[in-house]
Structure formats: C-alpha cells, structure tokens
Specification:
Blueprint (H helix, E strand, L loop, with lengths): L5 H21 L3 H12 L8 H6 L5 H34 L23 H15 L3 E2 L5 E3 H4 L24 E3 L5 H10 L3 E10 L10 E11 L4 H16 L5 E8 L2 E10 L16 E10 L1 H6 L8 E8 H9 L6 H4 L2 H4 L3
Parallel strand pairs: 1-4
Antiparallel strand pairs: 2-3, 4-5, 5-9, 6-7, 7-8, 8-9
The structure holds phenylalanine (PHE).
Length: 347
Amino acid sequence: MTDQPEEANGADAHAVSVAALDEVAAATETASLDAIRARYLGRGDGLLTVFRKRIGTIADPEARRAMGQMVNALVERVTDAIEERRATLSATADGDGAADAIDLTWPPPPLRRGHLHPVSRVFRDVRRIFAQLGYMAVSGPEVEYDRYNFTLVNMPPGHPSRDTQDTFFVDNDRVLRTHTSPVQVRSMIIRGAPQRVIVPGKAYRRDYDATHFPMFFQVEGMCIDSGIALSDLKGTLEFFARSVFGVDRAIRLRPHHFEFTEPSIELDVSCAVCGGEGCKLCKGSGWLEILGGGMIHPNVLRNGNVDPTRFSGFAFGMGVERIAMLAYGIEDGRLLYDNDVRFVRQR
Ligand code: PHE
C-alpha cells in the first residue's frame, strides 16, 4: 500500500470526510455525534486519522507536505461540523425550542375559560328573576301560523297594524313569528287559568340597524288570575328592572298602544351609555324603551278559551338584545352578533 500514488490517498481521504460530514448533518442527538467523532477521528484507528499515519510514508517532501495540509484541513472541517451540529441540537433542546419541550415539573399555564355570550347571560338572568316570582318558562314554534301571530292576538286580516311588523312570510298561512306573543294564546289553550309563564325565544323581522336585528330574542311574560290589575304589572316590572339594572337606574312607565293589550304601557330605563344626557344609543332622549306590556285584551283571553268575566291578566314582551346593550353599555347592538373575539372575550 505504501507505493500507492499520492493522488489516490488524497482522494480517499476526501471521500471519507464527505461521508463523515453527511453523517454529522443527519445526526439528531449529541450521542450520535460522539459516535461519529470516535469512528472518524479516533486516536488510533479513526477512518480519517489513519490517513495521517500514511503521510510519513510518502517519499517526496513536496507531496508529503501537500498531503499533510490536506488531511489536517479535512480533520478540522469534520471537527468543526461536529461542534456546530452539537450547538444546534442543544439550542433546540433547551433554548428557542422551549415551547416544544415539555417540562412536566412546571405548573400548568392558566386555562382560558370560556364564558356565556352577553345575550345568553341576560336570558339566564331574566329566567332566574321570573322564576323567583313563580313563572314557568315555556316555548312555542318559530314558524308560526299567521292566525296565532296576528289574528288571535287581535290583529285580524287586513288590520293596518300588521304592516308595522316587517314580516317574513313562509307561505300563505305561515310566517316567521314577529314576536313571542302568539305563545300567549297557545299557553292559555294548553294551561288555562290561572297561570304564570315566561316565553324566552327567537323572533324575526325585516329590520337591521344599531338596535334592530332580523333575528332577535324576546321574553314574553304572562300572568292570568282572578283580580289581576295594572298595578300588579307595574310592581312586577319594577322588581324586574331593579333586579337587572340596579336601584340607581331610573325607570318610567309610558302609556302606549298594542292591539293585544288594553290599556298598554311601555317601560323605559335611563340610558346606560350616557346616563340620561342623550347619546346615539338613546337617540338623544336619555331613555331606552326596554319592553311593552299591558292588560291582556278580553278578545285575546277569549281566543285562549279563558273567560274574561272571571279572569284578567297582564302580559309584557321585552327585547333581550336591548337589555344586554343597556346592562353592559353596548352602543351598537350589531357587535353582539359579529362574533369578533375581541368583543366577545370581554366580561
Ligand atoms: N309583542 C310586543 C312586541 O313585540 C310586545 C308585547 C308583548 C306588548 C306583550 C304587550 C304585551 O313589541
């Protein structure tokens, strides 16, 4: 072997170093780097080290020196590559890569807990408040017969008040209910008198702006018994408004008109955004209408098979979004349904 041409020796050394560099690049842990170093650079018989021993056997001093420089350069390159790779691997294990590495001894990060949507919270509060007064929550269909949505609540076919409802029609007989009031009659038919119910549910109207949504939530309330008077409605609504908004919020009752109640009222609460000064939400009035109500019209009682000479009752209907806006000071109600997490995550 000693008389092999020098070029062949040099080419072999180069090929061995290339194999070593490939292995270094493929190494995924520092232990394999140690093994590579031993195999190629080991003192006695490392695959690259052995070329050093051959240097002395080269007769020509020029060729000997050239071969020596080349082998030293290859050894240096492999050594550097091993150290570089070692540095990269340990940085990934405990440096930048800390997010990937799981240290089971650390306390867990705080969990991001979800919470109820403002509309759901108001819904829950309204149910709780009326449950305290003995009201049972009931429901009715959202695709409702025209007859229940309008006729039976004293808005017969052709009645001009139907125009004010911005109705979505399903077919000749049915609509998406424009309010939860049809459930008044349904509940009377099912439960008779006396009864106290609330109807939390969806209603639909062709309307969309800062305070109106094509689909919205209402809670209808209805109390029927002997001797029920307007003062009972007033006391009930006062209790409700104080429970939701607190005693520092002002309340007022205004006379109003609904086809299905007589007399009718509207309940206003002082504006949560401006505190009564006047702003965009309250359209400058300082007051926000939160619900309508009144004494159930005798025609409606009759339509529910309740005898108006023996029983009387009050009913009211409120917009849940409106109450959420008031309770949380939300100026544009569309925020409730945009599902922008920056809004929804607020508590
Ligand atoms: N149904 C009415 C509305 O949607 C509210 C209402 C309910 C008024 C019950 C009086 C009695 O505006």
